[in-house]
Amino acid sequence: MRERKLLFSDPGAKDEINVSPLIDIVFILLIFFIVTTVFVEETGVDIQRPQSASASDLEKQSILIALTEDGKVVYGGSEIGVRGVRGVVKRLLKQQQQPVIVQADKGAAIEMYTRVHDEAALAGAKQIHLATRQ
User: Does any domain span residue 68?
Assistant: First the structure.
């Protein structure tokens, strides 16, 4: 079969799509979503929280400290101990005032929770909460 040619077509011209503006838009959207995303830091350990009838949701921007059943104090996946709580909380509160949430395992000793609570209070935390489940 013979190829048909348009009367007004340029034989040397090729049909192309310019994707440069599309790439620019994708990068701008990517930067927008990265900047506006709120990153929630997890403690890095699995905690069995105690049950509470009066549990409520708290702010996403908070300092999460975990207290395990065997007495380990964990922040950001690494063990900081009771003595490390004050330094971590003080450093994070310099950036922005935010509540401290202690995720204590239901088998953790109340004495350990009290020590963690006291260290957070001495670091300058205005709000200290115990994480529970409904």
Answer: yes
pLDDT tens for the chain, residues 1 to 134: 566 666 666 666 667 778 888 889 999 999 988 887 766 666 666 666 666 655 566 666 788 888 888 888 988 888 888 899 999 999 988 988 888 988 888 888 888 889 999 999 999 888 888 877 66
Total-model pTM: 0.60
Count the domains in the chain.
1
Task: Find the domain containing 123 and state its range.
Answer: 63-130
According to DSSP H, which parts of 68-109 are helical? 81-95
Q: What are the residues whose beta carbons fall under 8 Å from the beta carbon of 43, sequence distance 6 or more?
A: 64, 65, 66, 74, 75, 76, 77, 103
